[in-house]
Amino acid sequence: MAVKPRTQRRDAPAATKVVVVPVPPVSWFAPLLQKIERGKSEVVLRKGACLYSQGEKADAVFFLDRGKVRLSVLSSSGKEAILGILEAGGFCGEGCLAAQPLRIGSAVALSTVTATRVQKAALVQALHDQHPLSEAFLAQLLIRNLAFEEDICDQLFNHSEKRLARALLKLSRFGLDAGGAEGHLITPKVSQEFLAEMIGTTRSRVNFFMNKFRRLGLIEYNGEVRIHPALLTDIVLSE
User: Fold this and answer.
1) How far apart are the C-alpha atoms of 193 and 103, rounded to whole Å?
2) Which domain holds residue 49?
3) Which of 7, 64, 72, 207 is the most buried (most CB within 10 A)?
4) Cα separation of 157 and 10, whole Å?
């Protein structure tokens, strides 16, 4: 079933966006970090707790063993911009390795999170001594950079309907359930306000397109969102 969206005016480039960063299997860093004997600790957070906050001293990198984390930045006027979402297997706070003295953003747990905290000095030494760790770390940075480039192009050249479809597809990759004919459930639940911030549009536009997608059978939407990837992909690929 191919569904072609109606032609419409493109929105202006959005001020905020979300990058859902692809990651390799969670085990990629576990055996490598085991070789770090000092400057390493485990962190366990409840949903809504901060891994680190904007303005704090940047002195460590966090490797996510379990859970999901939202990266955001707060402007001087109090407006929050969501920069990205990381899942288990990703890492954040790496700005400290580039002489960043203070955190320029915050990392907040979207679910129960378990992470490995590695102090800057310990990680710098490990990256120097362990070539497998440095190669894997660099590979992840390159993957993240490509993800940012793709999302910048999405923001500049695609209208909000296609951006929403793409965001739903990317979010559905987190914690995939059985899927199949019933589609993939997006977890944790996301609000229309959250989706609007993700794609840089208004809540009313998101509500309009979510209802449209539901009428077309692309998603099931009743408090929680379950998408049908093969059908929703037609929106993303359409010209």
Assistant:
1) 25
2) 19-151
3) 64
4) 8
Q: How do beta strands 60-66 and 91-92 pair?
A: antiparallel
Shared domain check, 185 and 118:
no
Query: Which segments of 44-191 does DSSP mark as H helices, in order?
Result: 120-129, 131-157, 160-171
How far is Cα 95 from Cα 76, in angstroms, rounded to an integer?
A: 20
Q: In terms of Cα–Cα distance, which of 200, 165, 166 is closest to 82?
A: 200
Residue 6 within a domain: no
Task: Yes or no: say if 235 and 165 are a contact pair by the CB < 8 Å rule.
Answer: yes
Q: Are residues 32 and 129 in contact, defined by beta-carbon separation less than 8 angstroms? A: no
Encode pLDDT of 28-55 as tens digits. Answer: 788 889 889 999 999 999 999 999 999 9
Pair (84, 143) in one structural domain: yes
Find, among 27, 110, 106, 19, the residue nearest to 63 by Cα.
27
Q: Is the pTM of this model over 0.70?
A: no
Total structural domains within the chain:
2
If asked whether residues 64 and 126 sit together in one domain, one would say yes
- Nearest to residue 174, comparing CAs of 21, 44, 45? 21
pLDDT recorded at residue 182: 53
CATH number, residue 26: 2.60.120.10
Q: Which long-range contacts (CB under 8 A, 24 or more apart) does 230-234 make?
A: 231/1, 231/3, 232/165, 232/168, 232/169, 233/169, 234/1, 234/2, 234/3, 234/4
Looking at 151, 169, 202, the residue that finishes a domain is 151
